[in-house]
Amino acid sequence: MTLVRIDNRLIHGQIIETWLPYTGARTVIVANDELAHDILQQKIMSLAIPQAVKSSFVTVDEVPEAVTKLSSNSGEYAAIILFSNCSDARRAFDSGFGFHVLNIGNVHYSPGKRQISPSVALSDEDETCLRHLNKKGVELDFRCVPNDPVQVRF
Amino acid sequence: MVAKTGKKDGVIGVVLVTHGTFGESLLQAAEMVMGPQVNCLAVGIDVQKGVDEALEGVRKAIQSLEQGKGVLALTDLFGGSPTTMSLSLMKAENVEVITGVNLPMLVAALQGRTMKLHDLAEQAMVAGQQGIKVAGAMLRKKAKK
Description:
The complex is a heterodimer of chains A (about 150) and B (about 140). Chain A has about 150 residues and is an alpha/beta fold. Helices cover about 35% and strands about 25% of the residues of chain A. In chain A, the strands form two sheets. In chain A, strands 3-2-4-1-5-8 form a six-stranded parallel sheet. Chain B is an alpha/beta fold and about 140 residues long. The termini of chain B are far apart.
């Protein structure tokens, strides 16, 4: 299966210990403009990814192309695509990366945000992005780890 | 964060960087075994907080422990954010990172702090690995003899 996820930590323990085994993903695509240009941080983040899993780091604008390439290379593909925030996910969707379900994992709290679950705090802008995607038919899945109860109270 | 600093000159600093309060409790357990320790700290990472804020906490801890011999960061999960954060500080600080911290590893790390940083890291890793036994099976084997 393919997982499209918002997680401000990108690759970390929850991804490696729970989502990788759960999805059976063979590829992890990290879509983040800052990381796409930070080779050292890329090496650090991908250090603990199992050898059988490929990882790539792309800018948000490169996501549609990267996903098309992946599906044409391997047909039915299992992958995890990670964004660090809601507006990046929206930007990729609007520029042609179509997805049906968006998992919202970790969106950390800062002043002015509304805490909607233990791991998700949304600003007005975050909320606008998610409502926009929801209107376009994207199902919102608020789960930190796979066995969290699906808690869509949005 | 629990501060355990003292005035002993020139020892390697030991910082535990873990999910939640694991490191803090582990340090308390080590002190039950070894008595009070100096120049060591536990930093708990709250996954609900931002990465930058947490990273600054780890950086400050490492800097406060630096006495010119480097700092050994013991982290819990390889691939977890406490590990990732510690690794990202290697460029700016004299720090070595060991993952999979357990009590035997911590005890070994606290015992060899006048060594070279690299040697202490090796010693602590070996102690951590050697401390894992299926002790029940060992006992059964011994009882058969």
